[in-house]
Amino acid sequence: FDESLNVGDNPTNSRGSESFSLEQIQSDLLDESESVRGHALIKLARGIRRKNKQLLDEITTCPTIMRVVLKQVADSDSYVYLAAINALAELAYWKQQFFDDMVEFFLDPTEKLKSILEFDMDNLREEEKETYLLIQRVKIGEAIAKANKNL
Predict the structure, then answer these.
(1) Predicted structure pTM score
(2) One GO BP annotation here (predicted)?
(3) Alpha-carbon distance 130 to 109, whole Å?
């Protein structure tokens, strides 16, 4: 038994609820490691689902989190993009604004992706571009379906 740890050192309190900080989540989403980004997205979704007041207040004052999560949906790693799909579904279920943003993305993924991603899709061959856009659209469609299922 290690007595060197203080109660305050643990990120969970006695009831087992995590501490949710949008700043920490956003910082983790910039990490190169897929596992760190995926965990940040899981934590974001969990905080929204549990209606963590601190996190919801921070999201309300910083709605750009939607753009950050959409960027993660385009990731090629399944751990990251599946966690991002779940985070999007939680955002959309929580607030109509985020649901509307997802529908807009679904209807016109080309323009939304150009504004979110660093690379230029115009450099892709037409066939590659169509496939890439279809894949992103399917991912967003899954998030829309998950949000609707929860209604």
Answers:
(1) 0.82
(2) protein secretion
(3) 11
The residue assigned the tokens 């596992």 is 35
Within 10 angstroms of residue 2's Cβ, the number of other Cβ atoms is 4
Concatenated DSSP letters of the chain: --TT--GGGSSB-TT-PBP--HHHHHHHHTSS-HHHHHHHHHHHHHHHHTT-HHHHHHHHH-TTHHHHHHHHHT-S-HHHHHHHHHHHHHHHHH-HHHHHHHHHHHH-HHHHHHHH-SS-GGGS-HHHHHHHHHHHHHHHHHHHHHHHHT-
- The CA distance from 101 to 106, in Å, is 9
pLDDT digits (tens, 9 = 90+) for 24-54: 999 999 999 999 999 999 999 999 999 999 9
C-beta neighbour count of 11 within 10 angstroms: 11
Given a contact cutoff of 8 angstroms between Cβ atoms, the answer to whether 58 and 12 are in contact is: no
CATH 1.25.10 fits 19-149, yes or no: yes
CB atoms within 10 A of CB 74: 20
